[in-house]
Amino acid sequence: MIKEVTLLELVRPDLERVEAKMRGIASGAYAPLAAAFLQLLGSGGKRLRPALALAAYNLFEQPASEKAVAVAAAVEMLHNATLVHDDLIDNALVRRGITTLNAQWNKGATVLAGDYLFARAAGFAAETENVPVVQLFADTLRIIVEGELRQLFSSRQWDQPQEAYYPRIFAKTASLFASATKSGALLAGASEDEVQALYDYGKDLGMAFQIVDDILDYTGEESTLGKPVGGDLRQGIVTLPFFYFLQNSPDRQAVIRALENSNGAGDIGDIINQVRRSDAMRQAAAEAQDFASRARARLSVFPQSEYRQALEDLADFVVSRHV
Amino acid sequence: MIKEVTLLELVRPDLERVEAKMRGIASGAYAPLAAAFLQLLGSGGKRLRPALALAAYNLFEQPASEKAVAVAAAVEMLHNATLVHDDLIDNALVRRGITTLNAQWNKGATVLAGDYLFARAAGFAAETENVPVVQLFADTLRIIVEGELRQLFSSRQWDQPQEAYYPRIFAKTASLFASATKSGALLAGASEDEVQALYDYGKDLGMAFQIVDDILDYTGEESTLGKPVGGDLRQGIVTLPFFYFLQNSPDRQAVIRALENSNGAGDIGDIINQVRRSDAMRQAAAEAQDFASRARARLSVFPQSEYRQALEDLADFVVSRHV
Q1: Hey, which of A163, A208, B53, B225 would disulfide with B184, CB 3.0 to 4.6 Å?
Q2: Region for residue A230 given its phi and psi (left: phi exceeds 0; alpha: psi -120 to 50; beta: otherwise)
Q3: Could you report the per-residue pLDDT of B283-315, keeping only the tens digit for each?
Q4: What is the dihedral of CA B58, B62, B65, B69, to 10 degrees?
Q5: Beta-strand (E) ranges in chain A?
Q6: Cβ atoms of residues B134 and A134 within 8 Å
Q7: A131, closest residue in chain B (CA to CA)
Q8: B29-41 b/e with 16+ CB inside 10 Å = b?
C-alpha cells in the first residue's frame, strides 16, 4: 500500500548522498573546526528541507542527479547557517536539547561558523551550474535575513496587525521550503507550470509547518520542546495563536497593557496559560490545516505516483504534529 | 601624458553605476534599516575592489556591461559584509574614524546586517548569469571566512612560522582582489591566459596591499589610522614586520616570553616600539615592493593602453602608501 511509504523513507538513498556531501565540508575545513562543523550538522533534525528538494526532483526522475543532491545540500546548509546565527541572536543556550555552538565558542567564532556554512551553501548552489537556481538561492537568503531583521525590530510590538504575521513566517520558513521544491523542479527540467505548482506546494507546506511550530510553542511540553513553553511570547514574538487570542479577548487593550508592563516571566506566564486554554489554539490549527490542504491540492497537476503520494501525505503529517 | 590618469579617475563613470547599484539596496530594504545600510556603504573607503573589477573588464571593452557593474558591486558588497562581521568580532568601536554599526545597534542586528549584505552580494553575483563567476564568488567567500577563522584561532600564537602569514593574507585580502580582476576578465570574455594573468595581478596586488596595511599598523599615526598603533599585535595577530623582527632578534625566545606574559598594553607597547624602530620595517616594505613588481609584470601580456597603464601605476601607488 503506497500510503505507508513516508517521504523520508522514499528519498533515503538520495538523502544519504546529501548527508555525505554536507559532512564532506569537515574534511576540507580548518582542522580545529572540523569537529564543531560536524556537530552543527549532526544536530540538524529530520532533513525535511533537502528531502523536499529531492522529492520534487524525483517526481520527474530517479535517482537524484548530482546537481539535485547539491541543491538539497545547499538548502539544508543554508538552514543550518541561519540556525547558528539565530542561536547567537537569541542567546539561546539550548536548541533541541543539546548544547549549541554559542555556549561553547565565543561569539566571534560563532558568527564566523555561521558565515562559513553560508559560504559552503553558496558553493553547493553554484555547483548546480543552473543560473535560475543560483538566483533563487541568493533571493531566498535575502528574504530569510530580511525576515529575521523584521522579527527583531518588531519584537514586543504587541499590537501589530495579524497581516504582518504571514510575510514573517513566509520569510522565516516557507520561503526555504518553496525554494527547495522549486529548485528540485528546475533541475529536473520541469515545465513552467510544474515548477510553479511545486513552488506553491513548498510555500503552503512551509506556512502550515510554521503555524504548527508556533502552536507547539504554546502547547508543547518543556521536555519535548527543549525550551520553555511560550518562548516566543517571552521573546516578544507574537504568533498566530496570540493573534486569535487577542481578537477573541473582550478587553484587547487590557491584554496589551499587561504585556507592555510585563518584564518578568510571571505576568507573561499568565497570558501564555490563557492563550493555551483558549479557542485560539483550535483556530490556529484550523488555519494550518487549510494551508496543508492547499499544499496537497497543488499536486493535482502531477500524475499519481508514490512520490506525489508521499508529498501529499507529508502535508497531512505536518499538521498532525500538534496532536 | 597617460601616467597622470589614475585608475579611479579612469573608471569613475562606471564606478558611479556601481555606487548607484549598491545604494539601491536601501530602497528595497526594511525601512528602519535603510539608513543604517547606507551608512555602512557610505563608509566604504576608496572602492578599490570594484575599480579593479571594472578596470579588468575595461582592458577589453568600455564602458562596463551591466553584468560587469553587477560583479563590481558584488565584490564591494561582500567586502562590506565582512567588515561588519569583523567589527563585531573585534568589538571595534571605531573603524575609519566613524562610529560603526556595532556601537549603535545590538549585536543581533549587527550579525543580521552583515548577513543581509552577504545576501545582496550573492544576488549581485547571480545577476551576472555567469556560472564560473558565481562559483568564484562562492569560493572566495569561503576562503575569506576560513581565513578569518584561522586568524581567530591562531591569535596569540607568537611562535607560529612565517609561512603561515602568506595564506592568511591571501585569504584576508588578496583572494578578493584576485576574484575582482578575474571576474572582470571572465565577463569580458577574455582568453584563459588573460584571465589567469589578471587573477595573478589581483592576487599579487592584494598581497602587496595587505603587507603595506600591516606595516602601516606599526608606522601609522593613531590620528590617521583611526585606531591604536600596533593594534594587530595588541590583538595577538602577528604580521610580516613582526616576523622579520623576531627573525632578527638575538634572543627570539625572550621576545616570545615577554609577549606570552603580557596581558596589559604596557609590555606590548614596548615591543611595538622596538618593531617600529627596527630594520624589519624596511624588510617588510621590500617584500611588498616585490609583490607589487610582480603584479605589474603580470600585465605585460596585454597591449599598452591607458587601462593597463593605470593598473600598473596602481601597483606602484599601493606600495607608496607607506611613505
Answers
A1: B53
A2: left
A3: 999 999 999 999 999 999 999 999 999 999 999
A4: 50
A5: 94-95, 98-99
A6: yes
A7: B129
A8: bbeebeebbbebb
Q: How long, in residues, is chain A? A: 323
Q: How far is A84 from chain B (nearest CA, A)?
A: 11
Tell me which chain A residue has its CA closest to the CA of residue B128. Answer: A131
Domains of chain A are 8-320 (1.10.600.10)
Check pLDDT > 60 for residue A172. Answer: yes
Of how many residues is chain B composed? Answer: 323
Reduced to 3 states (helix: H, G, I; strand: E, B; else coil), residue B189 is coil
Residue B229 corresponds to which amino acid? Answer: V
Q: What is the dihedral of CA A147, A150, A152, A155, to 10 degrees?
A: -120
Residues of chain B contacting A139 with CB distance shorter than 8 Å: 123
Sign of the CA dihedral B120, B122, B126, B127?
positive
Q: Which of A127, A141, A149 sits opposite B122 (nearest CB)?
A: A141
Q: What is the pTM of this model?
A: 0.93
Neighbours of A96 (CB within 10 A): 12
Distance CA(B215)–CA(A209), nearest Å, equals: 54
Contact A37, A116 (CB under 8 A): yes
Residue A226 and residue A187: Cα distance in Å, rounded?
37
Q: Which residue from B minimizes the CA distance to A121?
A: B138
What ipTM, to 2 d.p.?
A: 0.92
How does residue A133 score in pLDDT terms, banded at 50, 70 and 90? very high
